[in-house]
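Quick one: Dihydroorotase from Acaromyces ingoldii, structure tokens please.
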Amino acid sequence: MAATEIQLDLPVDMHVHVRQPPMSSLIVPHLALGGIQTAYIMPNTIPPISNVSQCVEYLDQLESLLPPSSDVELIGTLYLSPTLTPAEVQRAAAVRHPKTGRLRIGGVKSYPRGVTTNSDGGIESYDVYDEVFAEMERQGLVLNLHGEVPSDEEKNITVLNAEASFLQHLHKLHAKFPKLRIVLEHATTAAAVEAVKQCGDTVGCSITPHHLQLIVDDWAGKPVNFCKPVAKTWDDRKALRDVIRSGHPRFFLGSDSAPHPFASKMPSAASHGDVQTAASCGCAAGVYTSPILIPLCATLLESFGALDRLEAYVSTNARSFYRLPVSQGSAKRILRREQTTVPSSFTLDAHKDKDDWARDKAQVVPFWAGKELPWKIIS
Ligand SMILES: NC(=O)N[C@@H](CC(=O)O)C(=O)O
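--- reply ---
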């Protein structure tokens, strides 16, 4: 008989974008709504979070937006850029939360230049960071890799093979720094799954729920499903599903939930009726899943026969890789089989009564808007 209730060790999302004011005030409370207890916060803000004091200030600001009853803990990351020195890495590793005494900055995120949202200050070569990586290895900070290389006509690289072309960098970094914990973020291909499996225990891999569902056809022409790296083929999706179904301990949830205002996702909305603007503007990359995250994961894993791996995927695998404590005593997330409808959008309070244009800039459309989810968080 199909399960009607599931208890989970408290879920962790090891890759999430919560943005800055005013958008962050809408997004941060959605972490708890989606069932997450620990959230690993990405640094691609404007400007990027590139040093310890910026990171601590950002985390303080985000924590002030958490509902008082929430058990959510935030872990910060630093944006890899030339200003990051070995001394700053040492400072980052020493920061503790003033109340809990827990680690506050978990790692450093590398964005190759120009491949995604706010990556203009991203890196062009890994070699210049050898001393930084060596210090991270000593201090136990994690290196989080956005695993794509920029498009390049000479090398025939496009969004479709940008991840496969990146994997050589993963292997080189792992060979050079075998004790450095490295996470290949939001893997989308069978090649990436294979590459991570071939590496040693210090290399992990996050997989988003949307990449467990989408393929190319789902984002070509549908902005709400467009994200970087783009979803690939049926075979690639099968490889992602298979590795989650196998329970491989180094593969875990990183939602890459990436909210963008509706106006930035839909060129026609952004143009506000101006044809020229509509023709020239692009579609922001990012899929928004935070408010529905754990019910969505349960729904997807059940759809491909992996519900028994839900706890490993959303909690225990990442807790073990990141050396986070497992839930204390009876602290659990409980899911019940109960139908709920995914809201069609989420809008900042101050903009709910505004005209369409102002609202489009303060409104986010979630993944699977309007669809039914068979699982609901009850505590
Ligand atoms: N995934 C995305 O498509 N977008 C992310 C950036 C990122 O992680 O690539 C964002 O911040 O919007």
